[in-house]
Amino acid sequence: MQVAQQLRALIVTGDLNEGDLLGTEAGLRERFDVSRPSMREALRILEADGLVSIVRGALGGVIVRRPGQRTTARAAALVLQSRSVALADVFEASAVIEPAAARMVATSRGHQRAANQLRDIILEQKRTIEDPTACTNAMIRFHSELILLAGNQTLILVCEMLNEVIARTIADVLTRTSDEPATARRRTIRSHERLVELIAAGDGDGAQNHWNNHMARLRRSLLGDHGATVIDPNRHR
Question: Keywords of this protein's UniProt record, alphabetized (predicted)?
C-alpha cells in the first residue's frame, strides 16, 4: 500500500525518535490526502510491523516505535518455530559468526583498544566469580561486546537477534547449574583471557581458531540434551 510505504519511509529514514508523535489520524489523512479507510489500513499495517502505536482519545495520536531487538527476536522466533528449527541450529549460527568477529577485531587497527575493553569485562567476571548469575551476565556481555567491536552493523543486528532467542536457554542453564562450583566459570574466564591475548597480539587466525573451539565447548555445556528442542516464541515476548 502506497500510504503505508510512505509512512514507513518517514519513520525509518526521518529524524524521529521512539515515542515521538507522528500526528493524529485526521492530520495524517489531510497530509497524505487519503480517505479514512485508506489511512486506517496503512496504520494497521505499520502497527503490525511494530513501527507505530495508536493512542486513542483527545490527546492521542500515532506514536513512533523504533524496531528493537526484542521485536526482531520475537518475529524471528515465530519463523524459526514454523520451520521446526531446533536450538542447536541457533547456536550453530552464533558459532559461525562469533569466531569471524574475533578475527575482525584482532586484525582491526584498534585491536589494542578492543583488547583493553574486553579486559574490563573480564575483571567484572572475576569480581563476581562466586555469583553465578552476575558472572554469567558478564560473560554474556563479553560475547556482545566482541560483536560490537567488530563494527559490522549487520553482524550486530543478527547477533542481537540470536542472543535474544537463546536468552531463555541460558536462564534455564543458570537454574540448573546455580549450585555448581566456580571451577567451570574460571575455565571460561581463562578462555576469554586467551582470546584477549590473541586480539592484543593482532593474531586473526589464532583468535578465530580459539573462539571456534570455545563456541563448540559452550554449545555442549549450554544445550546438553536439549539441542533438538524447537524454538518456542512464547519464551521471547
Answer: DNA-binding, Transcription, Transcription regulation
pLDDT per residue as tens digits for the range 125-142: 999 999 988 898 899 899
Over residues 32-61, the pLDDT tens digits come to 999 999 999 999 999 888 889 999 877 779
Q: Which CATH number does 2-64 carry?
A: 1.10.10.10
- The SS3 call for residue 83 is coil
Secondary structure letter of residue 86 according to DSSP:
B
- Percentage of residues in the chain having pLDDT higher than 70: 83
CA torsion, ordered 206, 211, 102, 106, to nearest 10 deg: -30
Per-residue buried b or exposed e for 161-192, using 16+ beta carbons within 10 Å of the residue's own CB: bbbbbbebbeeebeeeeeeeeeeebeebbebb
CATH architecture under which domain 70-235 falls: Up-down Bundle (1.20)
Which residues of the chain form CATH 1.10.10.10? 2-64
Average pLDDT rounded to a whole number, residues 55-73? 78
- Count H helices, E strands: the chain? 10, 3
